[in-house]
């Protein structure tokens, strides 16, 4: 059974079907792209899969080791607890906290202390704090940010802020990671670094990644499989090579090259 099964999912906003009858499946350890023209419904689909919106129709089922969970009416924090993490189109870091603290927050969200050990500051509280700090530093090292531990997030260059957001999402130890336009606003050098970052996460962490991205060279370069939305509907799916040749997709992009 796939890790995530989306079955005939629909989201209506008044008379507009922002997502209409969409069915997709995500397997373990896949790197999948979700593309489509502006307003096609990509972010709405992410919002449906992460509990920001409740579907109007259809279902979303998460399968972990044979245990199926229907996500339809679950709140974002409960979905995150299951191991589904995301980043947003606009950067959402704790900008006045350090790089290290931003990542620690990710780890803390997954390793919640009991209220007693936290409030009473029991030895177990300090032990876990020290351990999570070490793990945060290890994670930052993997992504070459160990020299920025005490830098305030707001003082990082734009590309590094985006990188930190993804690292923080990884610190929640997801099985499924949604990245919403991670290359938005990046220069070519930053985009190249991001491409390597995504590849590295895919290779080393064994998680499923879904990427919304307008930068076609990035998508075609890293994704194994693509889904294409237009006006809320799924119009194509396939490998990057197949999608490049797909007439319906080329038409959706106004006859332009993709
Ligand atoms: N909360 C909302 N209320 C009403 N309409 C919405 C809402 N969110 C999105 N829409 C509409 O749904 C459609 C799909 O929007 P969405 O942001 O999902 O597209 P997108 O593919 O992510 O676009 P982009 O690539 O420009 O980010 C658009 O017509 C948008 O105006």
Automatic annotation (TrEMBL):
GO molecular function: ATP binding; ATP hydrolysis activity; L-isoleucine transmembrane transporter activity; L-phenylalanine transmembrane transporter activity; L-valine transmembrane transporter activity
SMART domains recorded: AAA (SM00382)
GO cellular component: plasma membrane
Pfam family, one: ABC_tran
Protein name per UniProt: ABC transporter ATP-binding protein
Gene Ontology BP, a term: L-alanine transport
Keyword Nucleotide-binding: yes
Residue ranges of domain ABC transporter in the record: 4-256
InterPro entries: AAA+_ATPase, ABC_AA/LPS_Transport, ABC_transporter-like_ATP-bd, BCA_ABC_TP_C, P-loop_NTPase
Keyword set, alphabetical order: ATP-binding, Nucleotide-binding, Transport
Domain of life (superkingdom): Bacteria
UniProt KW GTP-binding keyword: no
Matching PANTHER family: AMINO ACID ABC TRANSPORTER ATP-BINDING PROTEIN, CONSERVED COMPONENT OF ABC TRANSPORTER FOR NATURAL AMINO ACIDS-RELATED
